[in-house]
Amino acid sequence: NQTIYLKNRPEGKPSLNDFQFIEEEMPEPGDGEILLKTKYVSVDPYLRGRMRDQKSYIEPFKLNEPVESGIIAEVIKSNNRHFSVGEHVNGMLQWKEFQTATGNGLNKVNASEAPLTAYLGVLGLTGITALMGLDKIGKPKEGETLLVSGASGAVGSVAGQIGKIKGCRVVGIAGSDEKIKLIKDKFGFDEGINYKTTDNMIKAIAKACPSGVDVYFDNVGGEILDAAIANINKFGRIINCGAISLYNETETPMGPRHEGTFIKKSVLMQGFTVRDYVKEFAPPMQQLAEWIKQGKLTYSETIVEGFENIPQAFLDLFDGKNKGKMIVKV
Ligand code: NDP
């Protein structure tokens, strides 16, 4: 039974050396417990924050203890009358091939209703994040321009499509020409900007958004956020969802830079963590499922095979190796 521990707290960019594989005994479920076999593991940018020893909205990982993330697992033994062998559950679980659990905090998921992986992405935290960010903060209106960074990723690709459903002009920012093609062809974005081949993001956004930016869904922070602020319209809304461009920095760089834009243009910039809304997850999940059924929403997944590849899949997020939700199939 392989387990992955956090071995070091990385300085800057994490590496494989920060993780350690340990062989543990096969656990046995106690009274009221279930034995779970890991099937699909979600790797996410926010796990980088949990590798630091700092206070946040979620506890940091402890050194020399298993890493955890969103996992879909199968019940293979059950001493708990609420769970039957063969059922699948979704929840925050440890990076172990097999583990026991009480069932608290786990949600059953049904493979006949949606592919199991969808519960880690479009019907899970990242899809709900996209919808909640737009509903609670961005409030995009028909005819407005929505700009999305990290546009080909799990959150960004869903946010852009919701913008289209709401009748916006949607422009995406991503890190390769292939990703720009994907967001336009598959996800219906109107325009795309490859930030890696663009030397002036302020001008590139101005060109792609001729009527300015009404709502900016920010997944990356840093210089791209600055460039979006420079193009924001009167009464614009900026959703601070993530800042992946800064997660591996050892010191937080200065920013955002603007010349009184927020005041002159009455701009709102608000952060959020989707975990604040856990009690409100059911309606957005239902809405996302409905849009998929109606053919209005689609999704991509990058599925890496093998338990041993979980750390590398996590590291690859910072090199943009994924399109859509990054998931490891065990
Ligand atoms: P993604 O699927 O978007 O994967 C990460 C992507 O980020 C990569 O594919 C890469 O794409 C891009 N990226 C990596 N490094 C940089 C960089 N230096 N500058 C710009 N882009 C970069 O991940 P998620 O959809 O899971 O998460 C997206 C963001 O949303 C993250 O910042 C995450 O922390 C945040 N988030 C926030 C939540 C909340 O509750 N507030 C909940 C879930 C996620 P590319 O090739 O385009 O560079």
Helix content: 10-25%
On the 0 to 100 scale, the average pLDDT is: 96
| Tally of individual domains | 2
Distance between the termini: 12 Å
Assign the CATH superfamily of the largest domain. Answer: NAD(P)-binding Rossmann-like Domain
Q: What value does the Rg take, in angstroms?
A: 20 Å
Largest sheet: number of strands, sense, barrel closure: 7 strands, mixed
| Number of separate helices | 9
| Beta-strand percentage range | 25-35%
User: What ligands does this structure carry?
Assistant: NADPH dihydro-nicotinamide-adenine-dinucleotide phosphate
Q: How would you sum up the global shape? A: globular
Q: Find the structural class using helix and strand composition.
A: alpha/beta
Tell me the total number of β-strands: 15
CATH topology of the largest domain: Rossmann fold
**CATH architectural category of the largest domain:** 3-Layer(aba) Sandwich
Query: Secondary-structure element sequence?
Result: EEEHEEEEHEHEHEHEHEHEHEHE
Q: Which residues sit in consecutive blocks of at least 5 with pLDDT less than 50?
A: none
